[in-house]
C-alpha cells in the first residue's frame, strides 16, 4: 500500500525526515511512534499527498504522489489530529456534504451517511448540531467522515488524544472492525498501549530516522526483558543501584525509583530481600512498548 525508499523531507536547512525506508502491507495496521519532532507528521503528510517529498522514492497505492496525487487522495481517508468538523452543520450534514466532494450522488451520500452514523454509533444524534457533542462523539464523527469515500487506506494522526478511557476503547473497537473489513490503517500515536492494541507492525522514529521496526511483541523481545521490577525507596534514601546491578540485564535509576529489567521479576525481588534491602514498595510487571520507546528515544523532553 505504501513503499518508501530513502524518503526525505527538508524545510530549508532543517531535515525533518532523513532518508527512511517504509513498507505498509495491504490489510495491516501500521504505526509510527516517536517523540515530538521525530518526523512522524511530516511522513504522514507526504503519504497523504499534501506535502511533496524532497528526495527519495514514494509510492502510495502503487501510484506516484507527485504525478497522481488526486487519484491517490480519492482512495484515501484522513483523520487529522485536530477535529475540523463543520460546526454550522448537523452530524448528518457533515457526512453528506463531505461525500459530495468525492462526487457521490445525493442518493449515495444519504445511504452512506446512514451506514456511517450506525457504524460510529451516532444515529441518535444524526440531526444534532456538532458543537455540543462530546469529544468522543466528535472524534467518531471525524473518523466516520473520513470513511465516506470507502477508502482503501486510512491515515489516523493521534486518533484518541484527549479522550477518556471509555471513548478510546470504543474508537479502538471501530478501528478493529475497519481492519477486519480489509481497510489498511496507518496510525501515529503517543499512547503506547494504543500502539500495542492496534498495530500489527510499527516503526519508532527519532530525529527524522527510523531507529526500530517490528511488531510490538518483537520490539519488546529485542529491546527489553520479559519483566520489569520497580523498586521505590523512602524519600531521601540513596537508591543502592550498585548492589542491584547484577540482578538484572539492565537497571535504570529514576528520581523516585529504580527499574530492574529482568527475565523473572519475582526471583529478582527475592534476591533484593535476601540482600537485606527493604524497598518502600515493589511492583513486578511485564515489559511494555513504553519501555522500548523510552530506551530508544530517551526520557528527556523534546520540544
Automatic annotation (TrEMBL):
First-listed, main subcellular location of the protein, grouped into a coarse class: membrane
Top-level lineage group: Bacteria
Membrane topology: Peripheral membrane protein
GO cellular component terms given for this protein: plasma membrane
Family annotation (SMART domains): AAA
GO MF assignments: ATP binding; ATP hydrolysis activity
Annotated Pfam families: ABC_tran
Coiled coil: none
Subcellular location: Cell membrane
ABC transporter domain: residues covered: 2-232
PROSITE patterns the record matches: ABC_TRANSPORTER_1, ABC_TRANSPORTER_2
GO biological process: one example: response to antibiotic
Keywords from the UniProt entry: Antibiotic resistance, ATP-binding, Cell membrane, Membrane, Nucleotide-binding, Translocase, Transport
Family from the record: Belongs to the ABC transporter superfamily.
Entry protein name: ABC transporter ATP-binding protein
